[in-house]
Amino acid sequence: MSAALETLDRMNTALARSQNGQLPQSEMIRLWRSESASLALPARFDEVLHPLLDRLEASVLFSEESCSFSQKDLLANLQIWADKARLRLSSQSGAQT
Question: Which of 2, 31, 32, 95 has its CA 20 to 30 A from that of 25?
Answer without folding.
Answer: 2
